[in-house]
Fold this protein.
Amino acid sequence: MAQRRAAMAWVLYVWADHAFATIVATFVFATYFTQAVAEDPVTGTSQWVLMQTVAGFAVALLAVPLGAIADTGGRRNLLLGACLAVLVAATAGLWFVKPDPSYVLLALVLAGIGTVAYEVATIFYNAMLPDIAPRERYGRLSSFAWGAGYGGGLAALVVALVLLVQPDPPLFGLDQAAAEPIRACAILAAIWALAFGWPALVYIPKPATTRPWGQAVRAAWAELGTTLRAAVRDPVLRRFLIARMLFMDGLVTLFAFGGIFAAGTFGFSARDVLLFGIGLNITAGLGVLAFAFIEDRIGPKAAIMISLWALVVLGTPALIVTDPFWFWVFGLALGLFVGPAQSASRSMMAHMAPPDARAAWFGLFALSGRVTAFVGPLFLALATSLFQSQRAGMATILVFLAAGAIALIGLRIPRR
């Protein structure tokens, strides 16, 4: 019973934090920033790219050391709670970002802090998977959690649409001229994260022993060296991390600029972008739940490969079409394979990571997803500027996805 409650709390945490991913990082606030806060959409896009780049560097610097401290100090739950608190505070602060260029710095700082807290939290969160599920169920529980994440993102977007964005006149006395209905979506995301995230801090078992912070930090430095040497010497781990680095560059860029692309190329309004985000979360949830029943049978590597090549095949026409209807068709189809690629990579790392250094290895896992996160947006920005086309910029995403799939060919993942 306790293990089932812990598993439910672990799944529920992703339901909680995906409100930030969908409302702030992807569909609502990112679009609001580029369209209403920044001086113009092009400048706003560049500024948003810069913020994502700086946040990526911060995560890259913090990931492995904090993972090692969590391992040696036995404080994964405490550090997860600290990240959740920072995420909630930074997200709520976005309410104060008004539609005026003088608020650009405030918006970027708060969104950047929230992004770092969101990403660092996943290190401690992912490392908890082997504590709450048997090895033969890693893939299933990981997939269910990703499905819950998309479900939470979808539910948060629906609530935002029905209560905040859609009503005219706005509910709760919100001022449309000051963009308060859109800004209030940040308050919704903060409340959502807190309301559904706290059970993970209470019901997931804590390590049996803890060390004083000073001892934990000193021991973490020793573990950090061991972990980094393992990454260098282990050819399987090294190749897997390189492959994940490549395809995560593509996925991170897709998440960050999908709504911006829809608004700039197809003229999507804020409401259209929100509806598109809802549709994507539906298809993504269906896709990851479908893979939940097959990943443990075919293996996580096969699930990743299928997902990446499907994204390349479906993404090509999505960038070519000019009719918004077909963009909706191919764009929503992409959602079916976004979640499985990420879920399967997490369960693959869970199979590989040694029990006594799990958070540190998941720090490397996070590092592989963020250390070059600036490369995807950078290539997108260069291609967009060079060809004066958002389509050309978005096409670079397909290159990263294909490169990640190619890097996995022939790789055999050991179960430690």
User: Anything to note?
Assistant: The radius of gyration is 20 Å.
